[in-house]
Specification:
The chain has two domains: about 80 residues; about 80 residues, no CATH class. The protein is built from three helices and four strands, in the order H-E-E-E-E-H-H.
Length: about 160
């Protein structure tokens, strides 16, 4: 009987040791899994933060590029202006007027046809000053409107 007892007790202790090893290894595996999940969560949080900062940087770069392109476009727009005196004779009355003609160019391409304004002229008046006050497409006006304009539709000021 002692042989059976030693054989069964040896088997029992082997079974208990195997179960103990199983539970220790299972807990070790769970700890490793928890550590991997934690590092994965940290990596995902880092990637999400980088994604958001990259999206912000891309938006900033796009905005800067758009603003630079718009500034370059405006720098290549010019206004051609001509003015002269016109005399209209009706019966015994001679009427003088200053005629101002303007058009907008992009590089060397005209963007508009000639716009003509006629201003009554009195002797002794400054022709240059009259021409400047009648100008629609004056470069000062275009630059002022470009610097005041904010938002997405900034280019509409020149064609209103």
């Amino acid at each position: 009987m002692t042989i059976w007892f030693f054989a069964l007790s040896g088997g029992f202790f082997a079974l208990v040791a195997a179960m103990l090893v199983y539970f220790v290894m299972q807990s070790r595996h769970d700890v490793q899994l928890a550590q991997q999940r934690e590092s994965l969560a940290e990596a995902r949080a880092t990637l999400e933060a980088q994604k958001q900062s990259l999206a912000g940087m891309m938006k900033s770069v796009e905005e800067t590029t758009r603003r630079t392109a718009f500034d370059q476009f405006l720098s290549e727009i010019r206004v051609e202006e001509r003015h002269y005196l016109r005399e209209n004779k009706m019966l015994f009355v001679t009427r003088k007027s200053v005629v101002v003609r303007e058009r907008i160019f992009f590089r060397n391409l005209p963007l508009s046809s000639w716009v003509e304004h006629e201003i009554p002229y009195e002797e002794g008046a400054d022709v240059e000053k009259l021409a400047r006050t009648a100008a629609i497409f004056s470069p000062e006006f275009l630059l002022e409107a470009a610097t005041k304009g904010t938002g997405k539709n900034q280019s509409s000021f020149a064609f209103d």
